[in-house]
Amino acid sequence: MNQVGFTASTTTPDIGYALRAENIKKRFGDVDVLKGVSLQAGRGDVISLIGASGSGKSTFLRCLNFLEVPTSGTVSIRKESFDATDATNRSRSGKQKLRRLRQEVGMVFQSFNLWPHMTALENVMEGPVHVLKSPRKEARSRALELLARVGLAERADYRPSQLSGGQQQRVAIARALAMDPDVLLFDEPTSALDPELVGEVLAVIKDLAKEGRTMVIVTHEIGFARDVSDEMLFLRKGQVDEQGPPRYLIEAPKSEELQRFLARMRH
User: Fold this and answer.
1) Which domain holds residue 206?
2) Which pairs from 156-162 meet CB under 8 Å and 24+ separation?
3) What is the helix (H) or strand (E) element at residue 17, kind and residue range?
4) What's the CATH code of the domain at 46?
């Protein structure tokens, strides 16, 4: 089991880890939203982030691929490190470096973010064709494979408005997989779904975990997080309040704050 929340004394990436975030801080105006959050994920690890709304979970997740640029701290993928200066570097090499990070760390949003005028197939093809410069025939074949993988082969020609919320989220997962990222991030992937649709999305994520995908998941689905995760972080007020194997955090929480949070989740 890999240690999570460890702050290394150097910013040199450890090649034994798929993802390392070191001392990530984020300030919006005068508000410190993240106060130094660190995380390490080994290859194939699934890490869940739990905590009350406003605890900094989603902000931290977005900092991992610089959709939110950290005020300070370092994110490392493979042998390459990224910090805030990379987001402000307007040189060609700087832009390419930031593009590499976002290709290697895929994101699945809670609100799907599909292109409404495109079919499911076109949504999944878009990134490989325009970002990876894959031939259209190759991208189409791969997109069809991925739609079949998430159980939507027969919906390839449907637009988002013709799909249920659960189906849209599964298309979004296929779209993220099409970029072949090293790490997948999920920002509360079931929070926008009707209760009866939650299970179909969680089933796809569980299958990805079984395949050995490295994933970081923000979720309020505590039972799901316990079943699928190798490690769990409980965030409170922009800091890691408690961390460890999910079984121990859920069955024997040490802090009163985590005890209260879990009690609320059960009701």
Assistant:
1) 17-111+183-265
2) 156/119, 156/120, 156/121, 157/119, 157/120, 157/121, 158/119, 158/120, 159/116, 159/117, 159/118, 159/119, 159/120, 160/112, 160/114, 160/115, 160/116, 160/120, 160/123, 161/116
3) strand 17-28
4) 3.40.50.300
Cβ(240)–Cβ(40) below 8 Å: no
Cα–Cα distance for residue pair 140/146, rounded to 1 Å: 10
pTM of the entire structure?
A: 0.90
In sequence order, the β-bridge partners of residue 215 are: 46, 184
Let me know if residue 100 belongs to a domain: yes
The three-class DSSP label of residue 46 is strand
* CA distance linking residue 230 with residue 214, whole number of Å: 10
Q: What is the pLDDT along the chain (267 residues), one digit of tens a residue?
A: 444 433 333 344 444 789 999 999 999 999 999 999 999 999 999 999 999 999 999 999 999 999 999 999 999 997 889 998 888 887 888 788 888 898 899 999 999 999 999 999 999 999 999 999 999 999 999 999 999 999 999 999 999 999 999 999 999 999 999 999 999 999 999 998 998 999 999 999 999 999 999 999 999 999 999 999 999 999 999 999 999 999 999 999 999 999 999 999 886
d(CA 180, CA 10): 28
